[in-house]
Amino acid sequence: MKYVRGTTIVLVLWYALAWVLASPIVPFPHLVLVHLVRSMGEGKTYLHLLFSLYRIFMGMMLALFFAIPTGMVAGRFKALDQVVSPVLYLLYPLPKIAFLPIFMVLFGIGDLSKIILIAVIIFFPAAVTIRDGVKEIPVQFLELARAYHLKPRQILKDILWPAILPRIFSSLRITVGISLSVLFISENYAATYGLGYYIMNSWVMAYYIGMYSGIVLLSLLGLGLYIVIDGVERLVVPQSAL
Amino acid sequence: MVTISDARLDYPRHIAFANFTLAVKPGEMVSIIGKSGCGKTSLLYAIAGLLPLSQGTLSLTGGTEACSIMFQQDRLLPWKTVLGNVLLGLTKDYVGQAEMLLDRMGLYGHRKKYPQQLSGGERQRVALVRSLVRNPRLLLLDEPLAALDEQNRELLQQEIKEFVITKGITLIMVTHSIQEAIFMGSRILVMQPDGIRFETENPHHGAKDLRNRTEFFALEKVLRAQLGGPA
Hints:
heterodimer, A: mainly alpha, MetI-like fold, 10 helices, elongated, B: 231 residues, alpha/beta, Rossmann fold, 2 domains, six-stranded mixed β-sheet, three-stranded antiparallel β-sheet, 9 strands
């Protein structure tokens, strides 16, 4: 329900723009939506969506696979933090998209290079956020763990992991936007499926309705990811909903 | 149960306490009062094994495994339910006992709630159950009731006292409140940074009407004089 108002505002602005410009370059929303519904049924548009979803999901998982231990180690052990954090800070600001050609050479022109690029982009904010999450665990909780003789495995399970879980979801939310942008660019190279490919291919053929269908799908993909991230967070961090 | 001899604990910039010697017999209930900064909490942390002594010796029958501490703040983990907090670090074998203790504290209905959903008094009761469920032989209390209103405080004092006496647990309690020290302690110590300033037995500790006895007020007067101003 909360999305209805936002969608209405976007549609009104879109209609206004289409009406003012009166050009095929900005088609009316209803034409795009009709095309979108039809192409999802008849064409292979859903395949483009699925490929993009697969790449972004795998990118997220791969990023977390490395970011969680990196952030936890840096947050928990001061000596290691002094090594890890400067490396993170040096590499974090680099425009990772510039490495796409290198990744394509190293990992091939298929899905792997695209997934790794997305993973690299998510990795840095995720690792830094998780590191800060571990650092901000109140010292009283760690004292409590010592007072009650918790074993290292129990400290990890009962204190460190639950403390960083909300941070993991925050870092995913923060990186959804940038991940989609990078996905779009990376799918313009050596791809025959994916929303980035679909949008740019439609544009090259001056097929603007198709192009806008792809943009709408990319936007819906982002929205869907936010909804899923929030939903999973409510499931695994139940106290966040209180 | 606890033997501390000539103990001293240094922080980087100051001494927490020094020249501290104490022997606590099993089942004894010792209250420690003293002005802020006299090292009461540091002493308790040292007994619990959370802070190392800089000098002197400290021995516990059964080691630190046999003792359980209840802190000034409840320190409940916000991501665990009441029952989850109580069972922190314990196996499922303790569920029955945890539920029994929660029931005794009037918290059974709250066992699936999160700490954020409880009042201050309820949270402190959960923290108490968490420290009791471990069947400690030595219970250390660090001003655990300081943040509670008077009614809740007296109720919990009564609960703790009954439980500790019934189970034969040894108690060392640090408090700011002279009245609490008298109600809870069979022995009361007035502590200052350079050791124990005053020590007294509390012969009426077991009396049911302790709070209304003239001896209670007489002892309060003595302790107040020994503290030499607000605790």
